[in-house]
Amino acid sequence: KNHIKNKTTMAEKIRAKRRVKEGYIGDPITSETELGTATFATKLPLTLRDDELTFSQEDPEKEEVYTHEMESPVYTDYVMKPVVVSGTFLGLTDDQKKLLLGGEVKGGKYLHNSTIPILVKSLKWVDHAGNYIICTNVSGYVKYEPSIGKNGLDRYPFKFTCMAGAPDWDVDIVEGSDA
């Protein structure tokens, strides 16, 4: 009898679960050169564990052309949807509110604008294993939704659409590892 031993060599680590360690915000990254020199000095607020930090993408729009003579389409076209990043920030400082929600800080008070600004930035999320996801160019918003009470949370839901870095650099997400 020949016994074959199963050898498991993992050249690449399987990431089934990722816990957020920290997030950063910066200026949009518009080229591979800028990616290498991008600085993410501004740390984002903490994110709510009960509300996952999700990267999601809707199914593409599909257009099919049929003929009378055939049951299957003779032409199919797909229009892909962008990746959307969403989650909830917790406990923003006044300076973080100014950065993410607009408004101003004056005399120790945060003055919220009635108009929610649309942010155009880059985002970097790092997990506890040292892996990162960089969204090179996002457009989105953070909503003002604090609540007061026994179970109230100072929460600020956000939603950002990932876009290409530039018309001549069609990269919206970069994954890597600092580990």
Mean pLDDT: 88
Q: Give the overall form.
A: globular
Number of strands: 14
Outline the low-pLDDT stretches: 1-8
**Topology as a string of helices (H) and strands (E):** EHEEEEEEHEEEEEEE
- Round the Cα radius of gyration to an integer and report it: 22 Å
Could you explain the architecture of this structure?
The protein has 179 residues and is mainly beta. The model is unreliable at 1-8 (pLDDT under 50). The protein is 8% helix and 43% strand. The protein has helices spanning 32-37, 94-101, and strands at residues 20-26, 42-43, 46-47, 54-57, 61-65, 75-79, 83-90, 104-106, 109-111, 119-127, 131-142, 145-146, 154-163, 173-177. The strands form three sheets. Strands 1, 2, 3, 4, 7, 10, 11, 12, 13 and 14 form a ten-stranded antiparallel sheet that branches. A hairpin with a 7-residue loop joins β12 and β13. The protein is globular. It contains two helices and 14 strands, in the order βαββββββαβββββββ.
